[in-house]
C-alpha cells in the first residue's frame, strides 16, 4: 500500500523518537526508524534527504502545530497581551511529551553546521505566535517583535530543560520575568516617543526605520519564518 509523504515522515518520526534518548538525532536513529517502519530506504531518503536532521525539524514543527491548535481553542479574551504571549510560549513547551528529544535537538542545532536550521525554527515559532495573536505590523517592528520573542523563547527552553520543579513552576516564573524585562524596554521606547527632545533626536533614525517593511510572505522562500499570503 502506498502511503503519502506526510504519513511516511510521521511514521518515521514516531519510530525515531524511541531511539532519540539513546542515540540522539543521528544516522543510527534514522536507520532504526527505517527498519521498524519497514520503509524502503529509497523512500525514506526521498522523504528525509538529510535523515534524522529532517525528522528533528519535523518534530519541532509538530510542536508548533500543537501550540497553534491550543491557542485557537483557548478563550484568551480576558487576558492582557503580555499574558497571551506567556501563554503561547507555555503552550509550546507543554506540547512536548519528550523533553529528552528537545534536549538532543538543542545539542544538534547548536552545532555550527546546523545552527542556521535551529535559528530558522526558533524564528518560525515566534512568527507563528505573533501571527496567532493578531500581529499586523509591517515595518521594522515585524522583525524586532519576532527577534525579541525568539530570544525569550530560546532562554525559556534552556531553563525548562534543567527545571525539575513541580509542574515546571520555576520555568513559568522565569518566563514571566523575561517578558517583564521586554515590557520594560517597550515602556522605555514609549517614553522616548512622548518626549519632544528625544523625539527630535530620533527623527532621522525613526524615518529610516519607518521605511523598512516586513517581507512579502511568499511560499518556498529561503527566509526565516512561516510564509503565508501577504497581508492586505
Essential attributes:
single chain; 232 residues; mainly alpha; Tetracycline Repressor, domain 2; 12 helices; elongated; disordered C terminus
Can you put this structure into words, describing what you see?
With 232 residues, the chain is mainly alpha-helical. The chain has a domain at 79-210: Orthogonal Bundle (Tetracycline Repressor, domain 2), CATH 1.10.357. The chain has twelve helices and no strands. The longest helix has 26 residues, at 169-194. It starts with a helix and ends in a 22-residue tail after the last helix. Mean pLDDT is 85; it is low at 218-232.
Helix % is 55-70%
| Rg result | 20 Å
Question: Which structural class fits the helix and strand makeup?
Answer: mainly alpha
Question: Into which percentage range does the β-strand content fall?
Answer: under 5%
Q: Find the CATH topology of the domain at 79-210.
A: Tetracycline Repressor, domain 2
First-to-last CA distance: 44 Å
On the 0 to 100 scale, the average pLDDT is 85
SSE map:
Elements: H1 5-17, H2 20-23, H3 27-37, H4 41-47, H5 52-73, H6 81-94, H7 99-109, H8 115-132, H9 140-161, H10 169-194, H11 196-201, H12 203-210
Summarize this structure briefly.
The chain has 12 helices and no strands. It is mainly alpha-helical. It has a domain of 132 residues: Tetracycline Repressor, domain 2 (Orthogonal Bundle), CATH 1.10.357.
Amino acid at each position: 500500500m502506498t502511503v503519502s509523504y506526510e504519513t511516511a515522515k510521521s511514521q518515521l518520526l514516531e519510530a525515531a523518537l524511541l531511539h532519540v534518548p539513546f542515540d540522539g538525532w543521528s544516522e543510527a536513529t534514522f536507520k532504526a526508524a527505517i527498519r521498524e517502519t519497514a520503509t524502503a530506504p529509497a523512500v525514506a531518503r526521498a522523504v528525509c534527504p538529510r535523515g534524522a536532521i529532517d525528522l528533528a525539524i519535523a518534530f519541532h514543527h509538530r510542536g508548533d502545530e500543537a501550540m497553534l491548535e491550543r491557542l485557537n481553542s483557548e478563550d484568551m479574551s480576558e487576558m492582557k497581551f503580555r499574558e497571551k504571549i506567556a501563554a503561547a510560549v507555555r503552550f509550546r513547551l507543554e506540547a512536548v511529551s519528550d523533553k529528552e528529544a528537545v534536549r538532543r535537538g538543542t545539542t544538534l542545532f547548536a552545532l555550527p553546521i546546523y545552527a542556521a536550521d535551529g535559528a530558522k525554527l526558533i524564528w518560525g515559532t515566534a512568527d507563528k505566535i505573533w501571527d496567532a495573536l493578531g500581529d499586523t505590523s509591517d515595518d521594522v517592528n515585524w522583525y524586532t517583535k519576532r527577534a525579541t520573542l525568539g530570544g525569550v523563547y530560546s532562554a525559556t527552553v534552556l531553563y525548562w530543560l534543567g527545571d525539575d520543579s513541580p509542574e515546571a513552576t520555576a520555568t513559568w516564573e522565569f518566563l514571566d520575568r523575561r517578558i517583564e524585562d521586554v515590557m520594560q524596554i517597550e515602556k522605555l521606547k514609549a517614553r522616548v516617543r512622548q518626549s519632544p527632545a528625544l523625539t527630535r533626536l530620533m527623527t532621522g533614525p525613526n524615518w529610516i526605520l519607518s521605511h523598512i517593511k516586513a517581507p512579502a510572505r511568499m511560499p518556498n522562500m529561503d527566509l526565516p519564518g512561516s510564509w503565508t499570503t501577504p497581508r492586505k
